[in-house]
Structure formats: C-alpha cells, structure tokens
C-alpha cells in the first residue's frame, strides 16, 4: 500500500494588475502569507482577471466593460511563476474581460507558466471537462463552473452544422423571489391595476415584470439549478474521480439568498450551493470550493465520506478564514483520500 501525505490550500478571487511577489521584501506580513501558500502541494485560486499583452493581442474581441487596470500585464518570469506558485490550479474566468480573445490569451500564459486551469473551453464539452495536475504525491483533477456570468460568455455545444461557442462552464439558474403575505398582497394590487389580474386575491405565486414571486415567511431569493447543466457537471465529476486521486470542484457564484439588498447585513450565499455541494461530493468530489459572494463570516470546512468542502470570503483573498488547509493521504490502491477532520463533523 502506497500512502503519501499531501497538503492543499485554497484562496479566493485573484484580481491583480501586476506581479506582487517583489513586495514581500518590504512587507513581512505579505511575505509570511506567500511562504504559507508555497508550503502546500496544491494551491487553488479563482483567476478573475485577464493576462494579456495589449501590444501583441491578436484580433479585436468584444470589450465587456471591465476596467483595463484590472488586466494583468503579461511578463515572463514574474507573477504566478516568479512567486514560486507554479504547478498550481486555477479556475479561469477571463470571459469577463475581452471575451474569447482574452480567454485564449490568458490560457496561453497560464499554460506557459505551468498552471493547470479549468472551467473554459472552445465548446461547452471542453469547458465542462476536468483538467489534471500531475505530481509525485498524486493526481489532482479540477472541475470548474460558474453560476454568475455575463450574457454570451457561457460556452455552447456544437449543434448540427453550427459550431460551438467558446466560453465558460455555466450553471444556469431560475430565480424565485419569496415575499411575506403583505408584500404579495401589494404585488397583487399592482398586477390588478396594470394587467387586470389577481384582483382581490392573495396569490401563492405571481409572475410580474419578468420575475417569479412566491409567498413565504420572509424576503429571500430561491434558486433552481438547470437539470441539464447539473447532469453534465456531475457526469464530469464522476469522470474526474475515475482518473484522479483528489478531485476539486469549484464554482464562482455571486447569488445571494438573504441580506442581498442591505449593505450593512451579512449576505447569505445562494441556497442551491448546499444541494450542489452534496451532489458533487456524492459524485466523487473530494473538495468543494465556492468563490464570488462576499461573506462576512469565518471560513469553515466540512467533511463527508472523505471529502472536504469549504466556503471562503472573497472580500480579501487572504484574510482571517479566507484560507483553509486540508491534509490528506493519497492511497495508491484507494482513490478516495483519507482526510481530516473526521467524517461526522459536517454541519
């Protein structure tokens, strides 16, 4: 039996405009964080910026409004590789920048730096597919997706003679707004005045102004995952488990359940994430990571049947609770790693 100890770390959104490792020489606290990250065998981060050299960018892609100072300048020998963080995993999200052109350019620079990245592709099938990081301590698979994305940045499959569309691996959602009884009554009155519908009623559900409403105990947002997207994602997680010792599943999500319209209230992440995490773990995920929404809460990890799931604050990628580490034993004869904390600590 072959067992090798492995350590992993996860950070949140990577939004940087220039190489930063040089600052470690005069910022001891920052250097300590870099040293902490370098001690891990596997490091995951959400690549939420575009790496490119504007002087050599081929073609002219659609600019989607992201400020140019959020684009990382492409400089060989610096940045992720110069930081000593090469051979790591990144969930790529360049579609927010310069469309397909930014995606291709960022992919090229990540490949040159030896950083494995997933979540994008020339077609939906390629965007969904797991990508693999090879190491002496085991093979790590990354399956990546996003539920928050701009229109036309989601990858599409080939259909007959129509080619596929490059983009990201998208999980489409249907949103329902839950409202208390008094609010539903007020909406019914508006529906009556505007469309001569729901007059004198207290409906349980209501469709108004391109939104679906449902009566509930409080104001909240509820999300339903697209079944076709979900089936494809879970299929790729199962495929990753068959070909890797450790499977990381990541999602970028800004969907909010409660506190969404109050800047002073803590925001609750989308309620669908818990169901997605459980289904991902049941399909073979060993680690489930979410990034995107700002959560003013300490990060926590949970364990279920040998799998670790984490939720990380992205207000600062490296803040209290933003980094969670797990120690696992890769077993050659057993693809599911033995990790700590022990099963039963899931909440």
Explain this structure to me?
This protein is an alpha/beta fold. It is 22% helix and 31% strand. The chain contains six helices and 20 strands. The chain has helices spanning 28-38, 95-112, 124-128, 181-195, 227-243, 272-283; strands at 3-14, 42-47, 51-52, 72-73, 89-92, 116-118, 120-121, 131-135, 138-146, 167-168, 173-179, 205-208, 211-215, 220-225, 246-253, 287-292, 300-304, 307-311, 324-331, 334-339. The strands form five sheets. Strands 6-5-2-1-19-20 form a six-stranded mixed sheet, with helices on one face. A six-stranded mixed sheet has the order 8-9-15-16-18-17, with helices on one face. Helix 5 (227-243) runs parallel beside helix 6. The longest helix is centred in the first third of the chain and has 18 residues, at 95-112. The chain is globular, with a radius of gyration of 22 Å. The model is unreliable at 63-70, 77-87 and 296-347 (pLDDT under 50).
> Mean pLDDT, nearest integer?
76
Shape: globular
Q: What is the rounded Rg?
A: 22 Å
**Distinct helical segment count:** 6
What structural class results from the helix and strand content? alpha/beta
**Spatial strand order of the main sheet:** 6-5-2-1-19-20
Approximate helicity band: 10-25%
Question: How can the largest sheet be summarized?
Answer: 6 strands, mixed
Which ranges are low-confidence, i.e. pLDDT below 50, for 5 or more consecutive residues? 63-70, 77-87, 296-347
Distance between the termini: 32 Å
According to DSSP, the number of beta strands is 20
Strand content: 25-35%
Order of helices and strands: EHEEEEHEEHEEEEHEEEHEHEEEEE
